[in-house]
Every structure is written in structure tokens, then in C-alpha cells.
């Protein structure tokens, strides 16, 4: 049993600007290259032809990529701020427990230690 398949193909004529040859490409293929900014080569002289990547789809893809990049940067900045805040809170807790922030030693009277040993850094 055999099956016959018939397809209507629309070809678009192209004149090569390099060698002057005339050839034809499927119109759907040319439209797809116009959408994605792609190209093709002349079958005779192999010079590349096509469309630049400045169509609406390419511009929107670049804008989306830039927005995603900015979102990642903002997320990293927020995470960095949270980590710095936690570290500062940890230092504060250590100081509350009598650990000197300058020399990392424990003192029962941290206030007196700060006045006598680190008076130039912390004024009260």
C-alpha cells in the first residue's frame, strides 16, 4: 500500500549580492530566520546572508535576560545584607557576654577594660 503526500511550498527568490546568483528558499524558512535573527549561506559562493538580531523578539529576549540578571543581583545583595546583619548581631551578643571586640578576650568587667585598654577606639 502506498501513500501519496502533496505539499504546497512557497519559495522566495533571492539574488546574492556577492556572486549575483539567483536561488530560492522556502518562505517559512526565511520567515523563521527573520523571527530569530538567523541567516543562511549562498549555495554558490557561501557568503552569509540573513537578518540582524535587532528584531522585536530578540530585543524582548535581551530585556528579559537583563531583568533576570538584575533580579539575581538584588537577591544576592539582600542575602549579603542578611548575613552581615546576623554577623553584627553575633558580635553584639558576644560583647553583651563580656567578650572584648578588639582583642577577643573575656572580661568580667568589660566596661573597665574598654576604658583602660581601648580608650582611643571607644569613647563613653
> Could you say how many structural domains there are in total?
2
> What is the radius of gyration?
35 Å
* Secondary-structure element pattern, one letter each: EEHEEHH
How many strand segments? 4
Residue stretches low in confidence (pLDDT < 50, at least 5 long) are none
What share of residues are in beta strands? 5-15%
Instruction: Bin the helical content.
Output: 40-55%
Shape: rod-shaped
- The assigned structural class equals alpha+beta
Placed side by side, the strands forming the largest sheet appear as: 1-2
How far apart, in Å, are the first and last alpha carbons? 100 Å
Total DSSP helices: 3
Walk me through this protein's architecture.
This protein is of the alpha+beta class and 124 residues long. It folds into two domains: 11-53, no CATH class; 57-117. Helix content is 48%, strand content 13%. The chain has three helices and four strands, in the order E-E-H-E-E-H-H. The chain starts with 10 loop residues before the first strand and ends in a 7-residue tail after the last helix. The mean pLDDT is 86.
Provide key terms for this protein.
124 residues; alpha+beta; 2 domains; two-stranded antiparallel ribbon; two-stranded antiparallel sheet; 3 helices; 13% strand; rod-shaped
Secondary structure: elements and pairs:
Blueprint: E1 11-15, E2 22-26, H1 27-36, E3 39-41, E4 48-50, H2 56-96, H3 110-117
Antiparallel strand pairs: 1-2, 3-4
Amino acid at each position: 500500500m502506498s501513500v501519496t503526500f502533496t505539499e504546497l511550498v512557497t519559495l522566495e527568490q533571492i539574488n546574492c549580492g556577492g556572486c549575483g546568483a539567483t536561488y530560492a528558499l522556502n518562505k517559512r524558512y526565511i520567515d523563521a530566520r527573520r523571527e530569530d535573527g538567523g541567516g543562511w549561506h549562498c549555495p554558490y559562493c557561501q557568503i552569509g546572508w540573513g537578518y540582524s538580531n535587532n528584531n522585536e523578539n530578540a530585543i524582548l529576549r535581551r530585556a528579559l535576560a537583563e531583568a533576570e540578571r538584575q533580579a539575581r543581583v538584588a537577591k544576592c545583595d539582600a542575602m549579603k545584607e542578611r548575613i552581615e546583619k546576623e554577623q553584627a548581631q553575633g558580635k553584639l551578643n558576644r560583647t553583651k557576654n563580656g567578650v572584648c571586640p578588639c582583642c577577643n578576650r573575656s572580661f568580667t568587667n568589660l566596661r573597665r577594660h574598654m576604658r583602660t585598654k581601648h580608650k582611643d577606639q571607644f569613647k563613653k
